[in-house]
Amino acid sequence: MKNNKKIVWLLGILLLGVWGTILYQVYDHFYYEREPAGDENITVNDIHAASLNEQYVYEPTMRDPFRFTTDPEQKSVKKKEPAVPVPIWMPPPLKLTGILRNTNRQSALVEGSDGTAHFLHEGDTLAGMVILKIKDRTVMYKFHGKASEWVMEN
Hints:
Largest sheet: 4 strands, antiparallel
CATH topology of the domain at 94-151: SH3 type barrels
Oligomer: single chain
Number of strands: 7
Order of helices and strands: HHEEEEEEE
Distance between the termini: 110 Å
Helix content: 25-40%
């Protein structure tokens, strides 16, 4: 119990010291008259003129933070864009399953990957593929700008 009384007295004294310091600072600010530090006849124009005469000069080794590292007037150089890889050419997902012959023209029977069958003639287009020429055992076509041919399997 005696220890608690000692702690309460210590905290009370500390509290009075803190508030005393605060009140002293307030009183000092409002009621203490200070002498001016220099010439009493300084005007705003004098301060402005003095600030114009003072210029800071950067050392040549120090970078000026208010200047660009490159000339902003200089035209920007176009950066090379990274090369876009050329896609690998893949044949269309179709399979030549047969060639039909008629007296007037020939037709190619092409089967899609989903099992659909298409009868195509020369000049027909299917999924970006153009049939160029149909022969007895081969069909020439053009797909994505590259010409190729299917050969009929036995």
